[in-house]
Every structure is written in structure tokens, then in C-alpha cells.
């Protein structure tokens, strides 16, 4: 079993990590913790370094629980939803776990939603955490 954890180092992602640890234990799963960034020209290296450190911090919960885990900072120029879906397909992921935030229907219409994109287009089950 392979689980993809969509990680953005926000407050909601602490709950995502907790849920992923429990699910990985139960299912004897390998976990991929992935952050997707477009990586526009001129983005300072310090931004990428910060994200890598955040991924390492998230990884500790899985290491402490003796769960096989890999972290990935994906920079392919795709929007985050499409990038996460592609990563899941390329790595034959069985389940995706993603945090969602409460937002109005108007916000989703105007701004789009990474979680909404993943939920609607992923080829595997998606677990959402609020």
C-alpha cells in the first residue's frame, strides 16, 4: 500500500500528518509526503530550502512510528493539483490524503482549489481532512 500526503506546511496539515500516520500503521503502508511548487523564475533558493526543512519536520512523525516514508519537493511548473495527481499516478499511489479548508462557493469559483482538483481528478481514493 502507498499513501500520498499532500503537504503545504499549514496548520491543517498537522491533522493530515496525524491521520496519515494512523492509516499507514493500519495498512502497513509506505508514505510519500509531497509539496508541489511551480518554481517560477527568480524564486530565491531560500524558499525551496525552507520547504525542504518543513518536509523533513513532517517526516519525523513517520520515522518515529517506524513507517517507511519519502519526502518530495515537486517543481515541474504544473499547478499543484495536477502535479499531485501526476505524482500519484507515476508512483502507483493507492490513496491520497489532503487537507481542506472551509471556503465559500464563491472563493472556490474565483480562486480554484488544489484539493477540489485532486478530489475530482485523482484515479485513486482521496481522504480529506478538515
Quick overview:
The chain is α/β, with parallel strands linked by helices and 130 residues long. It is 48% helix and 22% strand.
Jot down its keywords.
Rossmann fold; 5 helices; globular; alpha/beta; 130 residues; single chain; 48% helix; five-stranded parallel beta sheet
Please tell me the total number of domains: 1
Please count the beta strands (DSSP E, at least 2 residues each): 5
Large-scale geometry: globular
The overall pLDDT, averaged over residues, is 91
Summarize the structure in words.
By secondary structure, the chain is an alpha/beta fold. Helix content is 48%, strand content 22%. It is built from 5 helices and 5 strands. The protein has a 5-stranded parallel beta sheet with strand order 3-2-1-4-5, with helices on both faces. The chain is globular and about 40 Å long. The two termini are 23 Å apart. The relative contact order is 0.23.
Annotate the secondary structure layout.
Elements: E1 2-6, H1 12-27, E2 30-37, H2 45-64, E3 69-75, H3 80-90, E4 95-99, H4 105-111, H5 114-121, E5 126-129
Helix pairs in contact: 3-5
Amino acid at each position: 500500500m502507498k499513501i500520498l500526503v499532500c503537504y503545504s506546511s499549514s496548520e491543517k496539515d498537522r491533522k493530515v500528518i496525524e491521520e496519515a500516520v494512523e492509516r499507514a500503521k493500519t495498512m502497513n503502508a509506505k508514505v510519500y509526503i509531497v509539496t508541489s511548487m511551480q518554481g517560477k523564475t527568480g524564486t530565491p533558493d531560500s524558499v525551496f530550502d525552507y520547504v525542504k526543512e518543513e518536509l523533513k519536520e513532517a517526516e519525523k512523525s513517520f520515522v518515529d512510528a517506524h513507517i517507511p516514508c519519502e519526502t518530495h519537493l515537486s517543481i515541474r511548473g504544473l499547478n499543484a493539483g495536477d502535479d499531485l495527481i501526476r505524482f500519484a499516478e507515476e508512483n502507483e499511489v493507492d490513496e491520497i490524503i489532503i487537507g481542506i479548508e472551509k471556503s465559500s462557493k464563491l472563493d472556490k469559483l474565483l480562486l480554484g482549489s488544489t484539493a477540489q482538483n485532486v478530489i475530482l481528478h485523482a484515479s485513486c481514493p482521496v481522504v480529506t481532512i478538515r
